[in-house]
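Look over what follows to help learners.
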Amino acid sequence: MIISTNGKGGTGKTTVAALIVNHLASKPSGKVLALDADPNCTLANALGMRLDTTMVGVIEEASQKMANLPAGMTKDRFIEMRVQESIVEGDKFDLLAMGRPEGPGCYCYVNTVLRNVLGKVIKSYDFIVIDNAAGMEHISRRTERAIDKLVLVSDYSAIGIRSSKRIYDLAKEIGIKVKEAFLIINKVAGPLDSLKAEVAASGIPLAGALDYDNELVELSIKDAPVAELKGRKIAAMFGELMKTIMGR
């Protein structure tokens, strides 16, 4: 199952992606891969993991070593091998990061590699949780061809909900197959009813809302992983929200 998170910048998209990873990893539901497709590469921090190599780093390494590759090994085969080796293995889930392309036009090749490698890596996992770049960049580049659960994260604002709708509409327009889409309203600091009309106009089913949480803010300031929220109110709220997303 592929679960992809997206939303405009500052909505807490990466935090939500990390919470999804931790939730799935805490259940006897299958093997989980966290895929950081955001060039900023902050998912590792939210998960409390150390990231040494990215897919972009592997591609740069391959370019530098082209003349010294083992006989009979193509550049694509070398990249595939090194990407597999760059997967950070954790106790309950693994992590793979895309990284930040440096040169102009580099995204097209990186995205092609990401799609090709993902198609092979996915076979080893039951769940792939993708943290996308903020906004519509990754959707417009078609990094994912098919998504089981598209989780759109909005902050407590009409603009955030409208941004989520634009991302959802763009995904459909460019032919990305989305089985189910859900909206999460994050950082709620008032009555949810005030955004009821915006949610209805978006046409995206509301999975639930997460209150503005000081403990979560403190974790962010300390650069601590979301796993430290276990047993706290926000974790319980998210657990209920995940029941809606997962349909159980």
